[in-house]
Amino acid sequence: MTSEYNYDLVVVGGGPAGSSVAYEAAKKGIKVALLEKEETIAHSVRTSGVTWIQNIKEFGIPDDCYNPIKKYSFCSPNNEVTISDTVPHAAVLDVRKTYRWLAKQAEDHGADIHLKTNIKDIIKNKAGDIVGVSGVNKEGEVVFHSKVVVDASGFSSTVSKSMGYVTQWERFGAGAEYEVQAENVDQETWWLMVGQKYSPAGYAWIFPVGRNIVRIGVGVGKPESTVDPTERLKELMDSKTGPIGKLGKITPIEFHYGLIPNDGLTRKTVYNNLILVGDSAGQANPLVLEGIRYAIKFGRIAGGIAADAIKSGKTDEAALYPYEENWKKDIQAKIKSAGKVQDRWIGLSDDEWDKELDIIKELKPEEFLDFIKADFGLANMLRLAVNHPKLAVRQLFNLVKNKNK
Ligand SMILES: Cc1cc2nc3c(=O)[nH]c(=O)nc-3n(C[C@H](O)[C@H](O)[C@H](O)COP(=O)(O)OP(=O)(O)OC[C@H]3O[C@@H](n4cnc5c(N)ncnc54)[C@H](O)[C@@H]3O)c2cc1C
User: Fold this and answer.
1) Which CATH number fits domain 3-45+96-168+266-331: 3.50.50.60, 1.10.443.10, 3.40.50.1820, 3.90.25.10?
2) What ligand 1 atom has the least distance to the C-alpha of 118?
3) Comparing 16-20, 38-42, 276-280, 356-360, which segment has the lowest mean pLDDT?
């Protein structure tokens, strides 16, 4: 038997994007369903969870959801740099706790969360516009009718693919990670490890979660490299390469694996009755492949705009477009600049990486953070490109500045 539901807004995917859409829309008093295929929110972890304390505070995420970071270490085959800040600006999230908090926010404001609900298809009206989704839950077939659908299904972009609006991402990052208990952990310091032995097109990392727990991972750019990140991670952990050796005895707790789009902001993100948000919209900073803060921020904006459109009775592309306008204004130029830096980094040999770290050494903590966050305010970058005391740094900032033209 098929169960049928009627909602104003249906959100497919209970990740940070979907929960944030559902929260903001439910707050505006419309009837919202959040659909998640797994048995709990964040049952599988597919992310390392690094983000920025400023964003955490803006979103109201509780303090017990993250471990603060104030020292940023980089190593290449023959070089090493640590940039030390006086106060922490970065953080490693307790991913499950944070994602569940986000979903609970939505639920507390009236959204219905349907777990174990795997969406497989879409429902269209005579005009060919989406008016619902269908799939299976623990009881059998299930259909959700709705005025607007949000595709927050992440990398898979299930809804937009079923509509025929998108195809599989061609350029993406594949990441494998072990969360481990380690003997010697400096919980205020993260490590990024670059060069061929760590990852031929990407980087490896150590991110401390707190309480002697760290996430050790490897990310590999596809299709640039054929290396399997899981195999490379095991090799690095077995051989205790670089800073992994300093961790002492390592006891794995759990394994994480995920894919993140890296095709830039190439997708259209609004259609009649449909919005794409988070990874399904490709909203990620390509420099370190981070997208959680964008998923939450633009999820909330999408939820608010969808709710207003539903209340006004007009949910076509034009009514939903302010969402696309909003995120484009905020991040389009920055992500383009970050793409330019990423292109440079992907092409570096080991020797060149050793030299790149000499440039990074010259950055002040705030310059380094703006850079790695892809927070390239044009005025700021122009100033640094012209006035930075070091020529090599000026050249690095010039790269960003030129892209913004
Ligand atoms: C290895 C790796 C490390 C990363 N590290 C970082 C980091 O340190 N910091 C950072 O900011 N970002 C990081 N990212 C990126 C970050 O994880 C994503 O940008 C972010 O999770 C996007 O959120 P989302 O809600 O759009 O998608 P997701 O988090 O992928 O959530 C999508 C949800 O939809 C559900 N779903 C999918 N299909 C269906 C369906 N058909 N029916 C019902 N439910 C469905 C999934 O189960 C999932 O819960 C990393 C990514 C990877 C792969």
Assistant:
1) 3.50.50.60
2) 42
3) 356-360
